[in-house]
């Protein structure tokens, strides 16, 4: 693929705070790489593991679309909008920070790790009213096919964002193939492999690799082993 960027798993930034182990695909906190600040409007892709009973104390956000995807364990969320919830594997959480919101996130359990992806996307509208949403999806619906988890449309599948972005997840058996067609020619696609090995176009990827492509219409994705992956289609401007 001519217009592409490859981020191998072992090239990510890493922070070990004792209670928190975090891999950063893009520049975040003390990790800064001028070559890896964002992919279009995709600003943050953090791969976090939080120790039992530990977590992020109350802190502010504004003018950002924040998506949390739990991979393992139970994550307790509390915010200044009055939401107190728990998200777990199969759930998708979105928070439009807009004019400003405070929230905290903790590992609910005292005897198990929590692992989740925290993703930040720049919004296409600033200073919106803060908003929270959380849904539970049937993970079986992504077996050998793509399951939409994020879109710009409140009436569509998954949660919605203030952005022209679509996210899908797949859990494919070996040798399963699919075609992905972009919704908007101005968008690119960032692929993040959660587990296993896949080939995107002609690029082979393995666990926790990231691969971004743009200026394309359709791409083939093939599972070279049993594999789980996340597709994030986002505007490139």
TrEMBL record:
Residues 14-121 form the Pirin N-terminal domain. Fe cation binds at residues 59, 61, 103, 105. The keyword Phosphoprotein does not apply. The keyword Flavoprotein does not apply. Binds 1 Fe cation per subunit. Pfam families: Pirin, Pirin_C_2. Keywords: Iron, Metal-binding. One of its GO terms (molecular function) is metal ion binding. It comes from the Bacteria. InterPro entries: Pirin, Pirin_N_dom, Quercetinase_C, RmlC-like_jellyroll, RmlC_Cupin_sf. PANTHER family: QUERCETIN 2,3-DIOXYGENASE. Belongs to the pirin family. This is Pirin family protein. It comes from Flavobacterium sediminis.
